[in-house]
Design brief:
Chaperone_Ric-8_A/B; two-stranded antiparallel sheet; 61% helix; 21 helices
């Protein structure tokens, strides 16, 4: 291992990365170290004794502003990921002693070539080229390493860390709005971004949405002027569907998360690993941030007009989520029901309107709400959103009647 450390330029006394001819040797040495650490418990223990995590961070700092060394960064990050996965002590060392959070966030910024327009806003070029395969692989490894470094951060974090977490969340917003070289790579990139966002304290996720710029505000006004003045609903639809705007806020990142969630539902398999992280993230965002909840409610639970079919029948996002409320996997069933319940502001009557009593019974029983009421969290009041179709059909739907303290 000491020979490999020397060949990989991981010795702290070796400062130079000048000889391009040595780069292939550095990469192959890092690959060997990855394989050895992954397969050998003795090597894992030696990694602690040799302070390998600190050496890897030092090498990353040498690489930070250098071009044409993505392979070195990629396997350096992969080795950091393996070490932090196999040793919980290294996670703490990376987080506090080695300043791994800002270092790895800067690596992501470099991979995405981010240009900041404000403290937590980056310029997004929707017509720009996709990430290269090397940049994508490097970003994915950095996301995985950051996940290990920040695990449990949403539970315990210092107030002084909020700025760094907001910067990371802003970088992840940028990540959600760009694409990789292939559709599969884009999905892998976004999947790792979702996992990492789940570690961000929910109070710092407000940077996922941002106010419109002056140019976007002008474009919004132009869009409205092009529509007939009496078509208010049409105007709302154009704004939300074409520019993902809600209450003057740019909702592009939330829209990407919602689309990502629907694709995972449509896959029809591996729900626990593939679907529950993004559902949990959207649930927590909705619970903590009013604008996000209202936008998601508008997209997932629009005013109810189809009152002839059962809630689980159909191809809308609502129909798909309602079907998950009776899934055989308890974790999947719970998080799908929880998401819809939060969108309904934890009001039982609203949840029953959109999902039906049979589909909601499991959640209500677990919450002790079979007799009606609402959950423990407080939400602002909304206006009545019942459509004429729903009001006319409501008496025929049977409703939920109280009988001896229970509902039928």
């Amino acid at each position: 291992m000491q020979i490999l450390l020397r060949l990989a330029k991981l010795n702290e006394l070796d400062d130079s990365l000048e000889k391009v001819s040595e780069f292939p040797v550095i990469v192959e040495s890092l690959k060997c170290l990855c394989n050895i650490v992954f397969n050998s418990q003795m090597a894992q223990q030696l990694s602690l004794e040799l302070n390998l995590a600190a050496k890897l961070c030092n090498l990353l700092r040498k690489c930070k502003d250098r071009k044409f060394i993505n392979d070195i960064k990629c396997f350096d990050l992969r080795l950091l990921f393996l070490l932090s996965l196999l040793h919980t002590d290294i996670r703490s060392q990376l987080r506090y002693e080695l300043q791994g959070l800002p270092l790895l966030t800067q690596i992501l910024e470099s991979a995405f070539s981010i240009k900041w327009t404000d403290e937590y806003e980056s310029a997004i070029d929707h017509n720009g080229p996709p990430l290269s395969p090397q940049e994508t692989d490097c970003a994915i490894e950095a996301l995985k390493a950051l996940f290990n470094v920040t695990v449990d951060s949403w539970k315990v974090h210092k107030e002084s860390d909020s700025h760094q977490f907001r910067v990371m969340a802003a970088v992840l917003r940028h990540c959600l709005l760009i694409v990789g070289p292939t559709e599969d790579k884009t999905e892998e990139l976004h999947s790792n971004a979702v996992n990492l966002l789940s570690n961000v304290p929910v109070s710092c996720l407000d940077v996922l949405i941002c106010p419109l710029t002056h140019e976007e505000t002008a474009q919004e006004a132009t869009t409205l002027d092009e529509l007939p003045s009496d078509k208010t609903t049409a105007k709302d639809t154009v704004l939300k569907n074409n520019t993902m705007v809600y209450n003057g806020m740019n909702m592009e990142a939330i829209h990407v998360l919602l689309s990502f969630m629907e694709k995972r539902i449509d896959k029809g398999s591996s729900y626990r690993e593939g679907l529950t992280p993004v559902l949990s993230l959207l649930t927590e965002c909705s619970r903590a941030h009013r604008n996000i909840r209202k936008y998601l409610k508008d997209q997932v639970l629009p005013p109810l007009r189809d009152v002839t079919n059962r809630p689980e029948v159909g191809s809308t996002v609502r129909n798909k989520l309602v079907r998950l409320m009776t899934h055989v996997d308890l974790g999947v069933k719970q998080i799908a029901a929880e998401f819809l319940f939060v969108l309904c502001k934890e009001r039982v009557d609203s949840l029953l309107k959109y999902t039906g009593y049979g589909n909601a019974a499991g959640l209500l029983a677990a919450r002790g709400l079979l007799a009606g009421g609402r959950g423990d969290n407080w939400y602002s009041e909304d206006e009545d959103t019942d459509t004429e179709e729903y009001k006319n059909a409501k008496p025929k739907l049977g409703g939920v009647a109280k009988t001896n303290g229970t509902k039928t």
